[in-house]
């Protein structure tokens, strides 16, 4: 029990606060030191982010041949033919004397779709299949079932539900397999054998994963829950041998025409489908251009929905692009093709000779180099700013009590000054700056035309206050790019025998990032507090704070015991005095 000035009349609570405030001064210093270390760690990590940004940017810009040896292609008529060139294409040119025809896609156009009552005007994309089905439509009654099924060691699967009557196909991973009995003879690759128990076994040469996605029509006992389904297939010619890639579908009588369009567009059939509401016609177009076989239809259909209801009989095969290149009559299956590293795009037919000339893309390479120089200058500016930032000795981090006594604006200004100059004259940053400068200023003996940045128009500024920032002589750099872009690329990236400027600089950046990470953590594998210097210092301060807090609690308890003893003694003295007074005057 604590007695707080009842007998002495003293403000013991306030006296205790003042005493403990004095006792807490070493704790406040430690807390301020911990806060300062946290600020310094944040600034180090911010520096590492800047270093890493340049490290990554260099790899994606000046160290890539595709950026530093880029070629542009000038077409004499870009409305008809355009082209791009890879970095390994020399200053070459091609002449396309004639474009006889462009490559087109194979297209199947159906007939006019009518409802079963003979009306075609009311057919829209929302019309259901059951309303346009022809009399010869083959229906299977049941329910559509999709499930994931495990494949056992015998190359077989077991469906969860029995198949509906009349089912002749199941879809495995979107591919149709014809169902045959075990006694049907030798099993084909596109067939699956079903035994009396309903187990399905595949041909031994069919490759299956341990689990497959299966779609099939299962039987149902409740006829009200049953629907009618139609099985249809689309085959697209895949090569010059006349082989087809076949994709199959189960469509419900309650599916709309638009549902069929969406399903086919999302399938692996590599076609584009649409329904034209003006002509009431279903149209399919291959996403690939050109033709493999002019004598055979490159799109074939199976199932009464495609062949009868949609009437997809008229198939117009695609055609190859035919043109004359440097006097040679040739053709391609696509309108975009490559010749000796130049990618040519045909846009229209022409009898006019069109020249494609590849040359160094000076603007693009210049932009890549200037972008690197700007990023380098921003980093140098940021590092110099931290190293030379003013340090305010009289501005320590604020305690909670000190912060409460200031306005928000005053506290903000105080924090700005308290955080200023924490990395001033930091030896780690000074070393990193010197390494970066030396990486770019040293000559590179690559055997090429350029051995130093100054030879391509990149030098340090004359202003000493810039701290080693770079400046570009645009005319000199553009002339160097135009004369020998490969030599510039070698200057930055070296060769098999010599390291280039960019490689040397990235190595120094990596070394600096590792050194900073060992001090401030956050990257390079230094994530736990015990792994980096500031983290260890913070842990030490935490231990000291814990010990101080424990001693402060003990000291506060001792002060309270002393004040309480004083109060009790004074209370007893007061009681004795009152007793004596009563004896003398009674």
Automatic annotation (TrEMBL):
Residues 8-105 form the Flagellar hook-associated protein 2 N-terminal domain. Keywords: Bacterial flagellum, Cell projection, Cilium, Coiled coil, Flagellum, Secreted. Pfam families: FliD_C, FliD_N. Residues 318-575 form the Flagellar hook-associated protein 2 C-terminal domain. Signal peptide: none annotated. InterPro entries: FliD, FliD_C, FliD_N. It is found in: Secreted; Bacterial flagellum. It comes from the Bacteria. Belongs to the FliD family. Homopentamer. Required for morphogenesis and for the elongation of the flagellar filament by facilitating polymerization of the flagellin monomers at the tip of growing filament. Forms a capping structure, which prevents flagellin subunits (transported through the central channel of the flagellum) from leaking out without polymerization at the distal end. This is Flagellar hook-associated protein 2. It comes from Shouchella hunanensis. The gene is fliD.
């Amino acid at each position: 029990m604590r007695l707080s000035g009842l007998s002495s009349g003293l403000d013991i609570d306030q006296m205790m606060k003042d005493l403990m405030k004095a006792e807490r001064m070493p704790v406040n210093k430690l807390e301020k030191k911990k806060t300062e270390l946290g600020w310094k760690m944040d600034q180090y990590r911010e520096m590492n982010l800047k270093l890493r940004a340049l490290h990554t940017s260099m790899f994606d810009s000046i160290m890539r041949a595709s950026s530093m040896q880029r070629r542009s292609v000038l077409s004499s008529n870009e409305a008809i033919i355009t082209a791009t060139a890879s970095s390994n294409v020399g200053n070459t040119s091609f002449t396309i004397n004639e474009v006889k025809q462009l490559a087109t896609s194979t297209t199947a156009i159906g007939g006019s779709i009518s409802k079963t009552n003979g009306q075609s005007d009311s057919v829209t994309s929302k019309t259901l299949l059951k309303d346009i089905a022809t009399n010869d439509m083959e229906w299977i009654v049941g329910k559509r079932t999709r499930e994931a099924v495990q494949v056992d060691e015998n190359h077989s699967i077991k469906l969860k539900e029995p198949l509906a009557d009349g089912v002749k196909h199941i879809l495995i991973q979107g591919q149709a397999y014809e169902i045959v009995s075990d006694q049907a003879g030798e099993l084909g690759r596109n067939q699956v054998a079903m035994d009396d128990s309903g187990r399905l076994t595949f041909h031994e040469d069919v490759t299956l994963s341990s689990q497959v996605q299966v779609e099939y029509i299962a039987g149902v006992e409740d006829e009200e829950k049953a629907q009618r389904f139609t099985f249809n297939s689309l085959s697209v010619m895949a090569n010059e041998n006349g082989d087809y890639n076949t994709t199959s579908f189960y469509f419900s009588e309650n599916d709309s025409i638009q549902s069929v369009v969406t399903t086919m567009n999302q399938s692996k059939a590599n076609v584009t489908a649409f329904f034209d509401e003006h002509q009431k016609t279903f149209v399919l177009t291959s996403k690939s251009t050109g033709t493999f076989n002019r004598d055979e239809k490159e799109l074939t259909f199976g199932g009464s929905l495609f062949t009868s209801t949609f009437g997809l009989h008229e198939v117009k095969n695609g055609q190859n692009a035919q043109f004359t290149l440097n006097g040679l009559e040739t053709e391609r299956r696509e309108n975009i093709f490559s010749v000796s590293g130049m990618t040519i795009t045909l846009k229209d037919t022409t009898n006019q000779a069109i020249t494609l000339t590849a040359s160094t893309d000076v603007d693009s390479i210049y932009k890549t180099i200037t972008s690197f120089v700007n990023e380098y200058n921003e980093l140098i500016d940021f590092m110099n700013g931290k190293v030379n930032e003013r340090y305010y000795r009289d501005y320590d981090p604020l305690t909670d009590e000190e912060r409460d006594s200031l306005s928000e604006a005053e506290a903000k200004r105080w924090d700005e000054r308290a955080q200023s100059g924490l990395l001033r004259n930091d030896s780690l940053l000074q070393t990193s700056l010197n390494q970066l400068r030396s990486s770019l200023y040293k000559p590179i003996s690559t055997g090429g035309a350029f051995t130093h940045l100054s030879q391509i128009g990149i030098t340090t500024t004359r202003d000493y206050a810039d701290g080693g920032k770079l400046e570009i002589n645009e005319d000199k750099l553009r002339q160097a790019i135009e004369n020998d872009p490969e030599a510039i690329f070698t200057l930055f990236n070296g060769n098999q025998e010599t390291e280039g400027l960019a490689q040397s600089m990235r190595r120094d950046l990596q070394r600096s990032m590792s050194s900073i990470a060992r001090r401030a953590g956050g990257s390079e594998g230094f994530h736990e507090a015990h792994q980096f210097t500031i983290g260890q210092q913070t842990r030490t301060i935490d231990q000291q704070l814990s010990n101080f807090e424990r001693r402060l609690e003990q000291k506060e308890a001792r002060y309270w015991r002393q004040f309480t003893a004083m109060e009790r003694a004074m209370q007893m003295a007061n009681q004795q005095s009152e007793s004596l007074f009563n004896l003398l005057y009674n």
